[in-house]
Amino acid sequence: MADYDPLRPLVPPAVGLAAVVVAFGGVVYAMAAAPWFSPLYYALSDLGARGVPTAPIFNGALLVGGALGAGFVVAVLADTDHPVRRAGGIFALLAMLFMAFVGVFPLPHPLHGVVAVPFFLFLTLAVFLWGGGDYAAGRELRGLVLVLLGVLHVVSWAWWALFPWFPPGIAIPELFGAAAFAVWGAWLAAAEFDRVRVDRDRL
């Protein structure tokens, strides 16, 4: 017990919140720093295209955020025994890795689409499955919210693809997905902080 560090349990949730702030915050900051950018007419990846001034911000945010997020998900999976949540966590880990790859292979790299498509697919599965696991495990509110976010992300892509009068910017469904993933990560990190606080109060 002499080697016990009371701050150690705070590391995973802190890393999780940092991942959300760096990744999602970096994307929002890149959007704000690009006066030419409009989600109605562009893809988010245009912010990270080679030669664009916002490329270091956008690609760096995805790379660092993905690395931090992968560490957080590994820690969360170690404490998760619900099978549906574990499935969601595995997809979340894959999403984090592919998010980092999106930063590594910016437009017009030929591998950009190869890593971007799985990223959005995996994040949708992660949010939806974790929400389903939450609901089955008795966390109805978070479960319903996450399932709804996953469904809305799919609907946003279907809406964009099926209705020709919809604004052509693919950034709109991409933002839905990024926001859903950010909510998932922030909510889990906040819950971990709360769990650590309760455990410390019991000591």
Summarize, please.
The chain is mostly helical. It has helices at residues 11-32, 55-78, 83-104, 112-136, 140-162, 171-202.
Task: Give a verbal description of the structure.
The protein has helices spanning 11-32, 55-78, 83-104, 112-136, 140-162, 171-202. By secondary structure, it is mostly helical. Helices cover 73% and strands 0% of the residues. It has one domain. It is built from six helices and no strands. α4 crosses α6.
Core attributes:
6 helices, 203 residues, mainly alpha, 0% strand
Domain module tally: 1
Strand residues, percent:
under 5%
Q: Helical segment tally? A: 6
Radius of gyration over C-alpha positions, nearest whole angstrom: 18 Å
Largest sheet properties = none
Report the uncertain regions.
none
- Helix and strand run: HHHHHH
Helix percentage range: over 70%
Q: Could you state the oligomeric state of the chains shown?
A: single chain
Q: What would the principal axes of the Cα set say about the shape?
A: globular
Write the SSE topology:
Layout: H1 11-32, H2 55-78, H3 83-104, H4 112-136, H5 140-162, H6 171-202
Helix pairs in contact: 1-2, 1-6, 2-3, 3-4, 4-5, 4-6, 5-6
